[in-house]
Amino acid sequence: MLKTAPAGPVWQKGITFTRLYQPANNLLSRRSQDSLYYLKHQVGAEWIALNPFAYQHTFDDPHIYLEGDPPDDQLRHAIQEAHRLELKVMLKPHIWLRDRANDKWRSTIEMTVEERWKAWFSDYERFILHYARLAAAEQVELLCIGTELTATAIQREADWRRLITRIRQHYPGPLVYAANWWAEYEHIAFWDALDYIGINAFFPLSSTSEPSLIELRGQAGTIAKT
User: Fold this and answer.
1) CATH of domain 14-225
2) Angle (CA) 155 161 163, round 5°
3) How far is CA 121 from CA 50, 53, 62, 132, in A?
4) What is the number of alpha carbons within 13 Å of residue 210 lying toward its C-beta?
5) pTM score, two decimals?
């Protein structure tokens, strides 16, 4: 039985666990199992994040394509292996743009008319509910409902709130959204509907090209405290 989010902060020692696309490196492979064992017993990780992908052709294409990346059987196997090793799992689905011309990426996904927004959220709901159901079936400890979808998250609060309600109907565990560190997390209005605030915190440690070690350590400490 999945538990609700704890009342107070919990330090999570985790790492993203991904794979290459050669058959020898898929999530069913012995290399995958050995890597999980290494993370648990040598690195000291307590959590892993698994990142299934769906695809979108362009930033203004309202259609999202699930291509089994990775296949569900591989994803389930990795979750089960992690749990066997007493590693906790965050499932963190991503959208990937096929065409990233003109510096477009998932953070810039934006529709021009309301009908296209409705189509995009319909496809996104299909995508995220697929993994919400999988997460529930495999008793995944944490589900990330979106990753760095800046324009959608800032502009479409009501759509995200409706989506969160739908996700909770399929997945009983805690939810988080992974906001971009730059010009997103401080503008999101639906944090109160989630269990955690997530920030992909790639904050720069220096504005100079050759910073000193003392400067880097000092800035890293300042970011950690905030």
Assistant:
1) 3.20.20.80
2) 105
3) 23, 16, 8, 16
4) 0
5) 0.87
Q: How far apart are CA 113 and CA 104, in angstroms?
A: 19
Q: Which two tokens stand for residue 201?
A: 């915190």
- Residues near 109 by Cβ (< 8 Å), separated by ≥ 6? 56, 59, 60, 95, 97, 120, 149, 151, 152
The pLDDT of residue 47: 96
The token duo for 168 is 């909770």
Strands (E), the chain: 14-16, 47-50, 53-56, 65-69, 88-91, 94-97, 142-147, 175-180, 196-200
DSSP letter string over 65-77?
A: EEEEES-HHHHHH
Residue 193 pLDDT class (50, 70, 90 cuts): very high
Where do the domains of the chain lie?
A: 14-225
**What is residue 23's predicted lDDT score, i.e. its pLDDT?**
66
